[in-house]
Amino acid sequence: MNSKADSKKNKDAADEEELLKILQELDEATPLHKNKKEDDGMHPLLTLGLVAAFLAHGAILFSLPPVLKQKGAPFLPTNSNNLTVMFNALKKQSYIQKALQQKTPLTFYDLGSGDGRVVFRAAREGIFQKSVGYEINPVLHMFASMRRLVTPKYFKSTSFRMDDLWKVDLSQANVIAVYGLYPIMGRLGKKMEQELKPGSIVVSNVFTIPGWKPVQVSKDNVHLYSIPESIQWKEHKIEKE
């Protein structure tokens, strides 16, 4: 009797197991289940997209206060072509060539370094012992700093500092890059006149420095200035007038 009961119990358990197996296979075959799997696969991409959107919007939002106060410029990334033009022009300058021949350490500053692309390009060129980016926007500063952490090759030769460009001491810079809007360029020019040492070079993308005479201008609107030649021209002009 017990044998028959156990046999029936085992058969019922086997049938139940088979039924559950069939139901599971049907569930996996349904579109809803497939969509769920596809949705699960999209989570990393969605997360990455949200992070990128946050960084982009944050970069714009944090750029607005300095622009409205005429103390800075919005995030204006320098394109690859202009970077090539800029550094090719720098390499041809006698001041740079002499320093390289004599193995004199050179320091590069990027005022308003944004996502760090100009600083990393400067480091890649192998001209400078140190390339420093100054950025007041915390989102962009964080992005550039994180990029530095994952780029060990240039970790020692680059650094990023969150600072107001008007408070930065420029006296230690040999080359300065800037991509500022016209309203701030006059004031920035006066600051550089007071702080930059003879032989220093300034590279400005698109916008000129009022009263300064560039030693070279490319068709891509990359303006290259040399200290003191570019400002002595202004002084001679005032004396003649």
UniProtKB/TrEMBL annotation:
Signal peptide: none annotated. Belongs to the ANT/ATPSC lysine N-methyltransferase family. The chain crosses the membrane at residues 45-64. GO terms for biological process: methylation; regulation of mitochondrial ATP synthesis coupled proton transport. It comes from Chaetoceros tenuissimus. The keyword Methyltransferase applies. One of its GO terms (cellular component) is mitochondrion. One of its GO terms (molecular function) is protein-lysine N-methyltransferase activity. Keywords: Membrane, Methyltransferase, S-adenosyl-L-methionine, Transferase, Transmembrane, Transmembrane helix. Gene3D superfamilies: Vaccinia Virus protein VP39. This is DOT1 domain-containing protein.
